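Human: Note token order:
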Amino acid sequence: MRPVSVWQWSPWGLLLCLLCSSCLGSPSPSTDPEKRAGSQGLRFRLAGFPRKPYEGRVEIQRAGEWGTICDDDFTLQAAHVLCRELGFTEATGWTHSAKYGPGTGRIWLDNLSCSGTEQSVTECASRGWGNSDCTHDEDAGVICKDQRLPGFSDSNVIEVEHHLQVEEVRIRPAVGWGRRPLPVTEGLVEVRLPDGWSQVCDKGWSAHNSHVVCGMLGFPSEKRVNAAFYRLLAQRQQHSFGLHGVACVGTEAHLSLCSLEFYRANDTARCPGGGPAVVSCVPGPLYAASSGQKKQQQSKPQGEARVRLKGGAHPGEGRVEVLKASTWGTVCDRKWDLHAASVVCRELGFGSAREALSGARMGQGMGAIHLSEVRCSGQELSLWKCPHKNITAEDCSHSQDAGVRCNLPYTGAETRIRLSGGRSQHEGRVEVQIGGPGPLRWGLICGDDWGTLEAMVACRQLGLGYANHGLQETWYWDSGNITEVVMSGVRCTGTELSLDQCAHHGTHTTCKRTGTRFTAGVICSETASDLLLHSALVQETAYIEDRPLHMLYCAAEENCLASSARSANWPYGHRRLLRFSSQIHNLGRADFRPKAGRHSWVWHECHGHYHSMDIFTHYDILTPNGTKIAEGHKASFCLEDTECQEDVSKRYECANFGEQGITVGCWDLYRHDIDCQWIDITDVKPGNYILQVVINPNFEVAESDFTNNAMKCNCKYDGHRIWVHNCHIGDAFSEEANRRFERYPGQTSNQII
């Protein structure tokens, strides 16, 4: 039976249609869609599953024939145009690789290019109607904002399958419901249907089915259950079965993609001789629910991970990076799909993938692109087991970096924290819930030592992304009737999933500054900057200069020389400086802006510029064991866009007291020949050392990733010349390569200066 077209129906009418096969006709719309201005006789609909009413595969009817759009060159701007054609105000995202299933019939449009302002898709450039070299595995979809255009007559054709679909799945513990620790890993499988939650008959239930269910719920794998116990328990309980005949291959990302059979309303004998389906899921390392599970997982030999996620605002999402030849690199998004994304998610200890992201949706990487055209079946244990192409620089660019969003277990962490007093839901004074045993109560957090890293964890626990600011004073936000400080001494590394995983004082709070005005607050954001130093340029430009003291008065004023310079015979003599250029890229999804507003920038008469950040970078010379023997620091003389990628315009410049910052896709260049762009090595003895540069060392400005802010180089100094080589970003190498780097800092040089 073909899918049904539903026009303007009430929710009750739609529900009746789903439950009754007698309404499978196609009612007439209230307004002829062909009369819509600019549509030129085209009709649009959203199709596929699983999906919500405002998302799906885009289908266009032209000349009486329905067809799809290829995802080649598809952009968010094209999605905006199509969502308006469908009657929504705008698009919030788009999908590729037939996320909502492959369509049928013609592929009407390929290489669709829109600016986003067009009134109709016919105004966009393309290869022409019906001219395409794609298959339906490349069908594009859109995710529209759930808000209708004012006065829009709903001529959008929403495809509804003639049978029910499973939209939500949960595990219900057979005993102790409501008292079990989260996440729930074992219990009865329940599916949400229009008339409520129902159980699934276990006749024919397989491990493949359990694998799919566990993946949907955020667990990487499943284990066998005590079937005899649950059968005995089922005899003492009543069940409401709504689904049977589930047959999954095991690679599906959603239960709806499996073969399913639903019980009809008049079926009296449901699941005869059977019982409710039960699953037991194995949580990943981050979500191990008990110490026993943690010990069991830790007892297994763990090699270094060969895949990781970077740049995601939430746990279980990010740009996919893989380890090859001891160096991390990205994955090209060609042929990237849910099967490959699910392999990555499960390999990292999450469930199956919710989304396979293309087009550097999680920010662009830097350096090598290791893989392209990854084709996974979904059964592989590692992405490296999937067929793939090793690519060259000409094959792909970082604008095509692949990413994922994984299914995560429900832990309820977001219910134990909230914000109050802010102007929006993304800001406010932080309140946490404590207690147990005993009544639960809400309280505040002492603002002492509260900073960006702690705020990052709070925003992550709230599900609000990154932290723009971590505030130690919140007197301007009313706390209502919550005045008790229940947590103090909070110190986080920035990677924790919730504040209770951070170090803190426990039940005995100690706060230097009392009162609600000195309690912690946050301002959260879905996007953040990500600064990265161009390490190769440091290696290429490093050299030694003996600079006369009479040319260093300004540098001394800004504390850019070693402490021994204070006792030098000014203006006679010189200082030996290790000089190099710094090119700092912003690869994140938000501009990098100084924390302080321009009203508080400090004017430095000597150099004739404003400092927007007192310390922007640290420059250090370290011994092989990490002891610092020479240092320099670089104030943000002026953060500006020196150069940008081809499609990015400069936004920040220093001239005329301009706004300071680094735009996404741009970089700020500090040349080797400007003041303080050095380390004073006058007192350094000959030997083997490590050159280290750290950007944003005090975490003054929030970034999506702080692990890539440090750069290290091997260097060998003989008292006259210096060899600088093997420069790399701190997290660019494997753990073993980093150990080798630190063990042999004076290895044979590839550069003599």
User: Anything to note?
Assistant: The first helix runs from residue 11 to 19. The radius of gyration is 30 Å. Confidence is low (pLDDT under 50) at residues 1-38, 154-163, 294-301, 745-753. The longest strand covers residues 687-695.
